[in-house]
Amino acid sequence: MKAIAFGFAMLLAGTAASQAADAWKEAEVNGAKIYTDANGMTLYTYDKDEAGKSNCYDKCATNWPPLKAEADAKDEGEWTVVKRTDGTAMWAYEGHPLYTFIKDKKAGDTTGDGVGDVWHIAKAD
């Protein structure tokens, strides 16, 4: 019984450890390496955010959906979990909360880049 419990605990630990990798991936768009969500939708940063803190709520979050993190997600290197004031969690890269854009319709779209001079594609280092 202990072996089964231990195996289950290790499975859960492995699942939690891979949540960041399951939430995002790298892609190449127009010759640049960028980050996308698991479906290939471009991820963006918002200049009005603070390090580790989202300032995009209500209508902003409707147009720029946060990259959702599961409630039990844990920080993984440069990928960190940001707790939002609405009780949800989202992923951030190097302290920058990440979002998709409602007007991007298919993987590889980058229509949100430069919107309002405050939205930018999340580029891979």
From TrEMBL:
Keyword Signal part of the UniProt annotation: yes
Endpoints of the signal sequence: 1-20
Domain of life of the organism encoding this protein: Bacteria
Annotated keywords: Signal
Protein name: Lipoprotein with Yx(FWY)xxD motif
Organism per entry: Ollibium composti
UniProt lineage: Bacteria, Pseudomonadati, Pseudomonadota, Alphaproteobacteria, Hyphomicrobiales
